[in-house]
Amino acid sequence: MEPTVDQYVPSDYLPIIIQFAAALGFVVVTLLVTHMIGPKRKSDVKDAPWESGIESVGDARTPISYKYFMTAILFVLFDVEIIFMYPWAVNFKTFGIDGFIQMLVFMGLLLAGFFYVIKKGILDWE
User: Fold this and answer.
1) CA atoms of 9 and 3, how far apart (whole Å)
2) In 3D, which of 73, 75, 74, 99 has the Cα closest to residue 85?
3) Could you say which of 25, 30, 77, 89 is the most buried, measured as most Cβ atoms within 10 Å of its Cβ?
4) How far is 47 from 66, CA to CA, in rounded Å?
5) Using one digit for the tens of pLDDT, what is the confidence trace for 4-58?
6) pTM of the model
């Protein structure tokens, strides 16, 4: 009995497995070869912490305001939501009135979240 179009056989996944194995093999071989043939010189200057040509001063564990992180998370959140609008805008005519209503609901939720953020004062810097 031959498989129908709706059935998958394990051999259908063979190209994916081969590509995954080739990529993994390339990474492993590259890491091993560069580790073996690379220079192994150590010195106090090379082993010292270095950041953009400026010597490290102070403690790296200084507290940072949570507002910085909240702003970064909100940027990513709203940025990803904007990405969802692009395919909708490209297929605007195809989706019709149903797609328009769905985007209105999406935009309503987006604006509700934005107003919540403003009301909580997360974007207010002191």
Assistant:
1) 8
2) 99
3) 77
4) 32
5) 666 778 788 899 999 999 999 999 999 999 999 988 888 887 777 776 777 667 7
6) 0.46
Place of tokens 């492993």: 28
What six digits make up the tokens of 7? 């059935």
Out of 1.20.58.340, 3.30.460.80, 3.40.720.10, 1.20.58.1610, which CATH number does the structure's domain 10-41+64-120 have? 1.20.58.1610
Q: Give per-residue pLDDT as tens, 62-120.
A: 787 777 888 888 888 888 888 888 888 888 889 899 999 999 999 999 889 889 988 98
